[in-house]
Write the structure tokens for this entry.
Amino acid sequence: SCSLYSLSGRFHRCLHRVSIQHLLPKPVSTVHTGGLSAGLLESFGAEDQEWLARRFKFHPLAVADLLQPNFRPRFEEYEGHLFLIAHWIKIEQRELTAHEIECFLTQEYLVTVHGSADALVERVRKTVEGDNAGLTRGADRVLYLILDAVADSFFDATDFVDDRIDDLEAGVLDAPDRGTLDQIFGLRRGLALMRRYSSPLRDAINALMGHEGGYVHRGNAIYFRDVHNLMVTVHEMVDNQRDLTTGVLDVYLSSTSNRLNDVVKRLTIVANIFLPISFVAGFFGTNFVSLIPYDNTVVFVVFLATLVLAPVGMLIWFWRLGWL
């Protein structure tokens, strides 16, 4: 999808390139700050790429990036506009996924291209419509709202990870199983995803703040600093949560090792109990008649007593050693 925010008129939604064209200021010099306009292009392909490059005069390199998703967040300055790639985090079926949104910022309008970020853009649209005073603060004000929503998505993800870590810490001590290990590695993959996009996004916002081309108004600069601080906090939280998941993994491995040791100890106890029984039964089961008087009642009673008393004695011994 492609959205346009400009400083003329009110918010609009449209489905085709021809619909979005009439929202552009003609000429740009006649733009006034009476409100905010927006257009929505539902699909985006090669023809739309050419149309954006021609209609908005965006740099071909920036427009070419729109058809190649999964770029790292970055900030670029081109003649007549700025280009920013950001990623927001979405929780889908207890998994973290990243979704890309590209932003073109000029002096008069903001164009965003977003594959599956419609919910995020819709949230920003509602915020803009409810903030009449904010409509006169420029297109960079809308860019701030988008980046703030992106930062909020990271915080939602860290809250989700915190809850999952608490659940895993309780489960890994009570009844760790293979599913617990899968959940731990799933969280680590999610945290690696967040770290992959939070760090370069923080640097991109920092570069945007340091830009002196006049695209970010002085009154809005403090808001971008706030988003930058939020991303710094997110990056630190992700690192802390990575350490916590490493700790949970160590506890899981230690708990599994202890359970294995308990099983081996019990098996060893059973083997030791049957060891004297096997020896006695094997000894008296020999065919050496001259060595073992099979017709002697006393010998038979001793044989039976040994079969009973040996395991009982070993159980008492193991109990005194604290093995049982």
Q: What stands out?
A: Helices lie at 17-21, 46-55, 60-64, 118-130, 139-174, 178-209, 218-284, 297-321. The chain has eight helices and six strands.
